[in-house]
Amino acid sequence: MSKGKIAIVTGGSRGIGRSTVLCLARRGVRSILTFNTNQAEADKVVALAAEAGAPALALQLDVGDVAAFDGFAGRLQAALAQMGAERFDYLVNNAGTSSAASLESITPAEMDGLYSVHFKGVLFLTQRLLPLINDGGRIVNISSGLARFASRNRIGYGPIKAAVESLTRYMALELGPRRIAVNVVAPGPIATDFSGGMVRDNPQVNRMIAENTALGRAGEPEDVGPVIAGLLSDDFGWVNAQRIEVAGGMQI
Ligand code: NAP
Question: I need a surface site. Which of 74, 83, 155, 244 has the fewest CB within 10 A?
Fold first, then answer.
């Protein structure tokens, strides 16, 4: 159904983005994935995507650097041409880093960094890529369970993800005339490299999450990638401007 389509997945080199790219590849969707610094991991995903049935390409992009977006758009157009296309169909605004800060410890610089990567990056990358996305395409932004419930030392991260959820509704409203649906996926804690691999590698944290989750465990990237890929498919064509939490029932 989605065969032959092209997706842009930011932060597709590791974790949730990687799972998304590979799930899309199994559905015949080609991806142009981005990495920030870790090209080796991106190259591995490109190879795995080809094995899974859909060629992929990797481009460098710092989503916190809006001044680089014009250059990125140029490199993206060249990558699309390499795939025999002028435009793409799906955008997944996934790239991001964590922050562990309390009300007492957070600094203006840390908050500016979170704002740049998680909000300004999503807004202005989408704006810059609007001419390159096909009408009838789809966008998925990534929030977090922490936008719904509060947790210690996430005072910058949780609220900025909540802002992405609001941004999603505004994007959906403005892109409706182009038949572009925009939804937001809010994962619970997922065992990736995020936060220094805390959810995966710290047994105490992992147990605490499992105890607060109805399905009794922390999430894996493979719990989230298929949801994002599914939301991009025609099966979810009439789902628009929605927040979908993918957290196994955490803090319910
Ligand atoms: P991850 O495993 O740490 O991977 C992060 C990915 O984003 C990597 O591909 C990384 O590229 C890229 N990236 C990081 N900073 C970037 C920047 N400034 N510019 C461009 N790319 C950048 O993280 P993840 O767990 O998959 O998280 C993905 C998304 O899910 C994030 O938006 C995160 O906030 C959200 N999320 C995560 C969890 C969780 O518990 N894991 C829960 C809720 C929401 P490099 O490899 O080059 O560094």
Answer: 74
